[in-house]
Amino acid sequence: MLKLVHLHQSPSSQLQPLATLQTTLKSSSAVAIPSKQPPSAARFCSSCGRRHFIEAATAFFLPVSPPKSDASTLHSDDYSDLLNKIHPPRPDWYEEFYASVMDTSMKSYEAKIAGYKSQLFGKLKGRAKRVMEIGIGTGPNLKYYAGNGEVQVFGLDPNKKMEKYARASATAVGMPPKNFHFIEAVAEAVPLDDSSMDAIVGTLVLCSVKDVNMALKEVKRVLKPGGLFVFIEHVAAKDGTSLKFWQTVLDPLQQTVADGCHLTRETGKYITSAGFSSLELNMASLYNDPFSLISPHVYGVAWN
Fold first, then answer.
1. How far apart are the first and last CA of the chain?
2. How far is residue 257's CA from residue 254's CA, in Å, rounded to a whole number?
3. Which one, of 240, 289, 233, lies nearest residue 263 by Cα?
4. How confident is the model at residue 261, as a pLDDT?
5. Which end of the chain is more exposed for a tag (fewer CB within 10 A), N or C?
6. Mean pLDDT over residues 114-139, rounded?
């Protein structure tokens, strides 16, 4: 029987120690999660700056080898088809505009979340030489790999215009060009081999993928046995609160103006039910403002 995870609640934006809770999960007894996803062609939330549109007033593919899962048997053309289906092509000017907004609008958020990220990325040191980031965006996380000349980062994003900003971020933190690989792809169909990554990172991305269950299935497929999935996501507020009410009211608008970002998605439940062998899950309120729509966060580490 699945042992329910009790979340560690941080009442303010002050960094809290990661809970020592380790929960053994069995996929056969996973908590039921609705599989129906909203019809919008959602994509990565990158650094989820798209949520600020409400709060502030609005490639190439790596070689694929078959063996185990449906995704790993796809050819490049199949990945292209899935990419275009899940993330329909947008005008270049729009993709460029959005990438530039992400590059300039996220500095205050990144400063706020830095303590949490430093703590989580510290768990990768000495354990991960091959890291995949889903929703790499403009590369705000690349600074956490600085000084590690052995790490190879494979950054996925469906917006090809993000690449130049991500590469600029890599250069700015001293990452050798050969150590960073940008892949135009979606989280639901990753063009990488089974068990090929030591760690996978997702920060503010599962709020906007079209199919959370499929994305997490891909995470587990690509991770090596015992590999780490590091995550930070904004999530729905507690039921019955005024914040949850306003999240629910504004969620349709958020999805429209923010490329499918959901304010009411209970991402922690999805991760809990994904079948990871062990899970460390925490909650925090990032902002003191009780009406900040994206203040509630979950963060932690899951082991494959």
1. 18
2. 5
3. 233
4. 87
5. N
6. 95
